[in-house]
Design goal:
There is one protein chain. This protein is mostly helical. It has one domain (3-123). The chain has four helices and no strands.
């Protein structure tokens, strides 16, 4: 896949995910929905956040920092956007269950940081 194709595809799919999340935001009543409504809500939010953060992270790396290898920038941006989206969605899930505390947030950040360091060290020969 070429770089312009990746950017166009990722942009259009991210817009679709944001539109789906906006529709679900107004269509689902959280007091009367079942688990499927919550899975759709948090799943569409997760995918929209991954797409947005991946595009922004790639543009920062490729345009602002002038990194030469685009595929490496895409890979790093997507990995970090995935972890960022996990942080946001899990924080919102904890908040909805009244389990969000600074201690839980610190454990979540530490766990995701350890995962990022593992993925960085695993990728190097």
């Amino acid at each position: 896949m070429t770089l312009p194709t990746y950017i166009k595809t990722m942009s259009s799919l991210t817009v679709v995910c944001w539109l789906a999340w906006a529709y679900l935001l107004f269509a689902i009543n959280p007091t009367t929905t079942n688990w499927i409504g919550f899975v759709l809500f948090y799943g569409s939010l997760f995918l929209a956040l991954v797409g947005t953060a991946a595009l922004v992270g790639f543009l920062i790396r490729f345009v602002a920092l002038h990194q030469v290898l685009a595929f490496r920038s895409v890979k790093e941006a997507f990995r970090q956007s995935f972890l960022f989206a996990i942080l946001i969605v899990v924080s919102l899930l904890l908040l909805s269950q009244d389990l969000f505390t600074w201690l839980n947030l610190m454990f979540l950040i530490i766990g995701l940081s350890i995962l990022e360091f593992f993925l960085l060290s695993y990728g190097k020969p």
